[in-house]
């Protein structure tokens, strides 16, 4: 794993923002199907730009303009525009939580054409695109990097910025449960909470609230999970899948499946967990998790995806069983120990 941003990279990022005029167009972009870290780090930073006096700031992400319900009340959500309303030729582009250009869809062109750009990310698999690169694979969330840049720009944390960054941090640490939950993560969380946040209320709204139909859908999909004790060199794999028909039957949007990996990966008999989620005919978004036996980012990258060592994803094709066959075959090549 490489180190975080160098002093020169931080200075270049500060210069990129400071050399932008107050009325220049600034476009923020996060990854397709945005999660709490993508939206929280992007909107928190966008609010910071507003505090600095920038008047023309827009935030967007590629694809369907579907903001998961829990994030629709994030401060700064008014910065969000659908992809077609993004600035056509912004002076400055900032990219959040994006491991590879493919996760930017058609917006990758906006990044390439911008006179100045900054990439804020924390994926070990980051492919190295964009102008100034603030990529810290040791950061628990992209919001850690965003806060680092805000503080270097002299933007004080207020409750609105803090709520965005807190939701991002809580999302990517699994509510402060994952290995990345270091002393500095808790120190940042403390500074964020000190602005007046109410963590209980934010957690309830963000993680512990879902429609009845989403619960029924989750129950059905968990009910068809398969345990394969011999997979991953005997460390075990558990997998399940969900189709577009499942979503339709329960009247749910695709993003309700994003957290389905959490109950699946709690299975004690399996190191590796896999959720295969249909996105189109014969096309599946695959979530991979490991408890330490497998570098699932290696598996994902080999299939054109990416992520972190113990949490990664890619796009698979065919039937769910075909996708799982591919994963099962690759697991043995990426055993860590
Ligand atoms: P999730 O399973 O929660 O969707 O994603 C887990 C991790 O893998 C996240 O860090 C996410 O950014 C990354 N990831 C998921 N799917 C893809 C993909 O198709 N391409 C890339 N590059 N990364 C992915
Ligand atoms: Mn992230």
TrEMBL record:
Domain spans labelled DDH: 26-168
Top-rank taxon: Bacteria
E.C. number: 3.1.3.7
Keywords assigned by UniProt, alphabetized: Hydrolase
Stretches assigned to the DHHA1 domain: 252-334
Pfam families on file: DHH (PF01368), DHHA1 (PF02272)
Molecular function as annotated in GO: 3'(2'),5'-bisphosphate nucleotidase activity
InterPro entries: DDH_dom (IPR001667), DHH_sf (IPR038763), DHHA1_dom (IPR003156), Oligoribo/pAp-PDE_c-di-AMP_PDE (IPR051319)
Keyword Hydrolase set for record: yes
Keyword Hydrolase: yes
Name the UniProt record assigns to this protein: Bifunctional oligoribonuclease/PAP phosphatase NrnA
Organism: Actinoplanes subglobosus
């Amino acid at each position: 794993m490489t180190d975080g941003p160098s002093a020169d990279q931080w200075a270049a990022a500060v210069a990129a923002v400071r050399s932008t005029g107050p009325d220049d167009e600034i476009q923020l972009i996060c990854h397709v199907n945005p999660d709490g870290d993508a939206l929280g780090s992007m909107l928190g930073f966008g609010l910071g730009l507003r505090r600095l006096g920038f008047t023309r700031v827009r935030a967007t992400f590629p694809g369907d303009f579907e903001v998961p319900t829990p994030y629709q009340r994030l401060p700064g959500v008014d910065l969000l525009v659908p992809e077609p309303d993004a600035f056509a030729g912004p002076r400055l582009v900032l990219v959040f939580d994006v491991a590879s250009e493919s996760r930017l869809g058609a917006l990758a062109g906006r990044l390439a054409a911008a006179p100045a750009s900054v990439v804020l990310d924390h994926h070990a698999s980051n492919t190295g695109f964009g102008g100034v690169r603030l990529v810290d694979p040791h950061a628990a969330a992209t919001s850690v990097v965003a806060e680092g840049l805000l503080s270097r720009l002299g933007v004080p944390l207020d409750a609105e910025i803090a709520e965005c960054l807190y939701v991002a941090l809580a999302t990517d640490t699994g509510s402060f449960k994952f290995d990345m939950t270091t002393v500095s993560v808790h120190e940042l969380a403390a500074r964020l909470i000190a602005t007046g946040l109410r963590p209980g209320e934010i957690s309830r709204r963000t993680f512990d609230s879902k429609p009845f139909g989403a619960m029924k859908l989750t129950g059905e999909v968990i009910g068809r999970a398969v345990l394969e004790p011999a997979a991953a060199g005997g460390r075990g794999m558990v997998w399940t899948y969900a189709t577009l028909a499942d979503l339709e039957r329960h009247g749910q949007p695709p993003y309700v499946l994003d957290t389905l990996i959490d109950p699946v990966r709690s299975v004690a008999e399996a190191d590796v967990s896999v959720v295969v989620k249909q996105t189109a005919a014969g096309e599946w978004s695959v979530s991979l998790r490991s408890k330490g036996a497998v570098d699932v980012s290696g598996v994902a990258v080999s299939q054109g995806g990416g992520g972190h060592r113990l949490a990664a994803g890619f796009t698979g094709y065919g039937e769910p069983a075909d996708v799982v066959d591919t994963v099962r075959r690759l697991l043995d090549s990426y055993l860590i120990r």
